[in-house]
Amino acid sequence: MTRPITAGVDGTEESLAALDWAAREAVRRGLPLRVVHAWRYAEALAAADRETQHGWVAQGVAEAVRAVSARHPGLTVTTDVVEGAAAHALAEAAAGAETLVLGSRGHGPVVGFLLGSVGQQVIAEAARPVVLVRAGDQPTAEAAGRDVVVGQHGGPEDSAAALRFAFETAAARGAAVTAVRAWPLPPVFAYSPGSLKLLDDAGGLEPYEKQALGEALAPWRERFPQVSVAEHVEMGSAGQVLLSLAGRAQLMVVGRRARRTAVGARIGSVAHGVLHHAECPVAVVPHE
Ranges for the UspA domain (predicted)? Predict the structure, then answer.
């Protein structure tokens, strides 16, 4: 089954930027584009019944689709106007998508995204990668030779999904990958005898981290030999290290392992920090 690139739209500037991003990605990958809009009947509009309100919504979506189709005349586009809660509808749309693309409100040059409750819930629940795009995003970064930057942590299996997404995206764009591995310096008592032996065998902390990153990248280098890869290993907070490289990125890719708490879903501190502060589009990829 061919999965489409799916864009969630609501008529805002940021969602139209997400639609443009999704259309370009669909063209690059030779995939169809699906456009989804979730809406709720507004009883306060007494002069407009449900059918009328649905017509208004559908007309707005159709106008956005006509504009993007004019820019990409060979692109296959389908639309779905769904009545219901946005978070639920978008999470369902993500399940059948190659990638779900959403807009996120920019807030000045420093803070990249304002991630509202809907966006956070969708990212936490989506079974497929979700890309967040700022209002005003332009394709210039994609054509400027910037890298796809991806965070890696743990063993090879822990970041396999994020690495796969990063390499596939870079291959489709003719871009390079910068793979980032960061580590904090734990207190000495946190090391077990086994971990101390591994560090000693590797020649110290930094060589050990470089070796771990190389092992995680090896299968993807073999699978995508055309993609140039740079490795970046640095001690520090993973979120801060990734953000320090955001200026050279056309796309930032992070993994996530969502967890539920009494106050709702949480997507992890690294993904949360990057989403709020990166100026480039950010892809959040669920662990397999």
Answer: 1-134, 153-286
Show Cβ contacts of residue 31 under 8 Å, excluding neighbours closer than 6 positions: 2, 3, 4, 5, 25, 98
Domain boundaries, the chain: 1-137, 140-288
Residue type, 6: T
Strands (E), the chain: 5-8, 33-39, 77-83, 99-107, 111-114, 130-134, 147-151, 177-183, 229-235, 249-256, 259-261, 264-266, 282-286
CATH number listed for the domain at residues 140-288: 3.40.50.12370
* Full DSSP string of 214-249: HHHHHHHHHH-TTS-EEEEEEES-HHHHHHHTGGGE
The interaxial angle of helices 160-173 and 205-223, nearest 10 deg, is 50
- pTM greater than the 0.85 cutoff: yes
Which pLDDT tens digit goes with each residue over 122-152? 888 889 999 999 888 878 777 778 999 999 9
Residue 24 and residue 68: Cα distance in Å, rounded? Answer: 9
**Which pLDDT tens digit goes with each residue over 249-263?**
999 999 987 555 544
Superfamily for the 1-137 domain:
HUPs (3.40.50.620)
Query: pLDDT at residue 5 above 80?
Result: yes
- The torsion angles phi and psi of 104, rounded to 5 degrees, stand at -145, 140
